[in-house]
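Handout, page 2. Input:
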Amino acid sequence: MPAPASICLLRTSAIGDVTHVVPLVRTLQRAWPQTRLTWIVGKLERRLVGDLPGVDFVTFDKTAGWAGMRAVRDALRGQSFDALLQMQVAMRSNLLSLGIKARRRIGYDPARAKDLHGLVINERIPARTGEHVLDAIGSFCEPLGLKQTQVSWDIPIPEEAHAWAAEQLPGDTPTLLVSPTSSHTLRNWRPERYAAVMDHAAQRGWRVALIGGPSQDERSMADAILAVCRHAPLDLTGKDTLKRLLAMLSRAPLLLTPDSGPMHMANAVGCKVLGLHAASNPDRSGPYSDRRWCVNKYDQASRKYLGKPANEIPWGSKIEKPGVMDLIEVNEVIERFEAASAAIL
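Output:
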């Protein structure tokens, strides 16, 4: 199949999913270095990936409503693409895609489509179940005649970000980074449980750093953790940027976090992840490269809240129920920390 002259990628959010698109970009660039790639991405998410070389970016500000959609349409005025990869099924994204001119409009198979997704596409990726989200996104190249056989990120990190991270985390003391807050609040663990694991790591000679964004929810979670820690961690909550976070993750051997964007950012730069999974399936949305250090209580959650084992519920089901994360015990996380510590150091 001849190389397309141009491809438009539509995946605007969220941070983790946008991170999963980067290997697809690398796959397309390796196969067709002359193909023009245009990526429609969210305003926040562009701060993470917007400097990928060889990609034209168009920012979509979802907070701007219809004006944000018009801005994308205006930015693409006069452009037509050989293919649109419509990798987001939400109604907003389906409407946004109507302003993109493309001969081939590739979207999800019926089982993974929703919100009238089928009306805005004319081709579909292979219908599969049991896939990690990254592999599902990677399969968008298959209708074009490619196969994603190599997964790589190489997201640029500016020298300023590396210098800032080195200033915060100097020397070679092993650092446990703790990003405690997911945008899905029912995925969050209890503050006192985070504090117990953090105190254990500190007692074992690790430097512990609490990280997170500038939102009030993240600040509140950090304050709740700090209030019960016996060994005060370094508090960097709200002090970094996405690029500085990448730089910190590239310096630290281990991240403790629920299912969240930083989990996938960490995986992209080789930082191991002690993931906390009860509300979501780590085999679908956990750290792609290495899930050995995750605590997986998803099956137990399915049995408790849905009355059946995880292998009998639809792939990708979320079990975001009040109290679901309490299924994860402190001693289980400490055991995974010790195992990771022994393997990493």
